[in-house]
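Before we proceed, please read the two lines closing this message. Let me know whether the structure tokens fit the sequence:

…
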Amino acid sequence: RRVKLAEENCLARAVYFEARSESELGQLAVAKVILNRVKDPDYPNSICGVVYQGSGSRNSCQFSFACDGLPDDVKSASSWSNAKHVAQKALAGDAKLAAMGSATNYHADYVKPKWAKSMKRLIKIGRHIFYSDT
């Protein structure tokens, strides 16, 4: 039970810090990327492992909040409550997640990462563009 709560918390933190200003669908999409990575042998096999992968080096991880060098302080109780709700929905397999298919990467629409050219663009939701490597 403790592991399940820790994993849910890691997922909620990622949703909060990466997508709290997005729609519920946008937040669920970020959660789906994390869950897809957990299933992919190229990534760690736990939610916390995926969220914090590369966090030992500044700006070297998919989830920028995990390695931007800034404190990860929750400042909005309502946004945090919503992020926890979204994480729970994602872990329960919310039907809206099916639209995300095999997405394993995303970025904000105001950046142009080099890796995006080598991946299949799937969908843009809010300010995020989602990709699959298949």
Remarks:
- The helical segments are 2-19, 24-39, 47-51, 77-91.
- DSSP finds four helices and three strands in the chain.
